[in-house]
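Let's see one such:

===
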Amino acid sequence: MTEEEEEVMSDETRLSYLRIALIAVGLISIFGIYPLGLIWPSGWTWGHGHSHYLYMIVGVYATLGVFLLLASRDPLANKSLIWFTVWSSVVHGGIMTIQAIEDPMERGHLIADVPALFIIAIVLAALMPRGKGALAAAA
């Protein structure tokens, strides 16, 4: 087996795992954020007392989740959405990290939604096929 054939197989495997990751992140985004916010508010919702934040964030992430599920059918045709998810997760997680460090009432986020965003970004970025083999894997 040539090095090029191994790279194509590697990209095919990576693409299969990417599809699974997109489905998992999509389903968690649609069905998981609201229950997590109710069960563990100090780690998954921001603000103190009643806040409209949870409903807003659930709406945004449920919408993203639907599009990630659709992207799982053909990840290479949806690279910009996947990279948007990666980089917006990094930015969102970075901002939340600073806010959680500055506000002692929000420290629970440092062990809940902040790492979750960074894990999503790392997993999706690591699984995105790259180079010439990415096109062959799509064929």
